[in-house]
């Protein structure tokens, strides 16, 4: 008999994070159905808004004695606790030429200097746009195109403004569809689901929560459904943590890696359950050319959150740069089923095969990487070079000439020119 899957129903979607941490659930996928990102970039360290932002956007105790948090997706991104966030926006338009700019502005308007936004482009087959923000995968799509690549647990976060902006009176139909898809894709390996509802737009909270629970029971009677009324949390994940953690990030982004390394190491004893602490220690050691310590902390980050994408990708890159090609391939081969639509890993696998002189496999991976992110000239260049070595000169030269028609740096332009026969 299959085990019962725990489902927690909470009122405020910010409270979902608190209940989630209380149950020490890592590796989660967040399905964020909202008209807004609920992600607010941290102001610059020296700005007068910094302290007030951290204060209002940290975990705090309400007048009623409950814990709450301002922008829970901001702290998720900082800490690497989630593995993937899927932001569902019904106005998502993949044909919009300014899609990258729109998504960037949704996250980075206040966050220059601390957040890293790495745009991965639009996947035409899946109708999903992807970015990596501080190491965490963000997919953007309409509800019809959610790709359910779920890890160990699920947070389904529904804000009522989604219905106000997009779905109007189709609330029940959408929620039934969500539950149906959830029921189809969860299995015995998924332990935990949080359904969080924000009651803006005139919903009556008790009635709506009961309604949600009834819909869950209708979907699957074996679910263990619990109504959460008094969330608790690790009391130490507070304003002081946010300040120290963000200051360490600022030092890292400013190139002060030794100081950043020291600050992150000072957080390790108390916050060793946070993947981002381990990851950023590994990153600073890598920049400081301490290979062994960098490898050790990438591995410890993956012990805390085995699905932290950038730790996987960075560790593989570390192996590649050290010439440990089979070690890199072993790591990537274990993860490629989860990350087959991300160009970095495919490109790095291509480089490993290329250096091992397995040119057919290298070409296959470079082709996948190029198809996933056509704006990356490096991927196209390596595809062309591999084609040349496979004596497919005509196709290689065509790719190289196409690159020359693009706005590229002079140094790279000379490299491409010299490669054309």
TrEMBL record:
<dbReference type="InterPro" id="IPR019734">
    <property type="entry name" value="TPR_rpt"/>
</dbReference>
<keyword id="KW-0802">TPR repeat</keyword>
<dbReference type="InterPro" id="IPR051685">
    <property type="entry name" value="Ycf3/AcsC/BcsC/TPR_MFPF"/>
</dbReference>
<dbReference type="InterPro" id="IPR011990">
    <property type="entry name" value="TPR-like_helical_dom_sf"/>
</dbReference>
<feature type="repeat" description="TPR">
    <location>
        <begin position="275"/>
        <end position="308"/>
    </location>
</feature>
<dbReference type="Pfam" id="PF13431">
    <property type="entry name" value="TPR_17"/>
</dbReference>
<protein>
    <submittedName>
        <fullName>Tetratricopeptide repeat protein</fullName>
    </submittedName>
</protein>
<keyword id="KW-0677">Repeat</keyword>
<feature type="repeat" description="TPR">
    <location>
        <begin position="343"/>
        <end position="376"/>
    </location>
</feature>
């Amino acid at each position: 008999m299959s085990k019962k899957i725990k489902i927690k129903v909470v009122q405020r979607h910010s409270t979902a994070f608190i209940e989630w941490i209380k149950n020490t659930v890592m590796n989660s996928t967040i399905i964020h159905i909202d008209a807004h990102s609920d992600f607010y970039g941290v102001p610059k360290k020296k700005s007068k808004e910094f302290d007030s932002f951290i204060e209002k956007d940290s975990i705090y105790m309400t007048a009623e004695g409950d814990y709450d948090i301002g922008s829970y997706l901001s702290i998720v991104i900082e800490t690497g606790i989630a593995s993937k966030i899927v932001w569902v926006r019904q106005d998502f338009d993949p044909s919009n030429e300014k899609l990258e700019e729109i998504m960037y502005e949704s996250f980075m308007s206040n966050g220059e200097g601390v957040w890293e936004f790495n745009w991965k482009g639009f996947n035409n087959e899946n109708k999903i746009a992807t970015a990596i923000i501080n190491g965490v995968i963000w997919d953007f799509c309409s509800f019809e195109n959610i790709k359910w690549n779920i890890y160990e647990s699920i947070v389904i976060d529904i804000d009522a403004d989604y219905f106000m902006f997009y779905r109007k009176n189709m609330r029940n139909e959408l929620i039934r569809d969500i539950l149906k898809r959830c029921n189809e894709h969860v299995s015995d390996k998924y332990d935990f689901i949080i359904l969080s509802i924000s009651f803006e737009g005139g919903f009556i909270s008790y009635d709506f929560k009961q309604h949600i629970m009834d819909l869950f029971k209708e979907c699957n009677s074996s679910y263990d459904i619990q109504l959460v009324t008094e969330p608790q949390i690790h009391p130490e994940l507070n304003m002081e943590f946010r300040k120290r953690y963000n200051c360490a990030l600022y030092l890292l982004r400013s190139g002060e890696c030794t100081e950043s390394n020291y600050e992150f190491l000072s957080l390790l004893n108390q916050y060793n359950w946070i993947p981002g602490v381990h990851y950023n220690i590994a990153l600073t050691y890598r920049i400081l050319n301490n290979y062994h310590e960098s490898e050790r902390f990438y591995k410890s980050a993956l012990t805390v959150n085995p699905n932290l994408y950038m730790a996987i990708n960075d560790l593989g890159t570390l192996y590649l740069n050290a010439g440990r090609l089979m070690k890199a391939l072993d790591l990537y081969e274990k993860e490629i089923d989860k990350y087959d639509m991300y160009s970095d890993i495919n490109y790095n696998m291509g480089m490993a095969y290329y250096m091992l002189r397995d040119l057919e496999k290298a070409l296959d991976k470079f082709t996948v990487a190029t198809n996933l992110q056509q704006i990356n000239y490096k991927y196209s260049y390596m595809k062309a070079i591999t084609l040349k070595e496979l004596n497919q000169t005509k196709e290689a030269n065509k790719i190289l000439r196409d690159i020359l028609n693009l706005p590229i740096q002079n140094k790279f332009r000379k490299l491409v020119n010299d490669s054309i026969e």
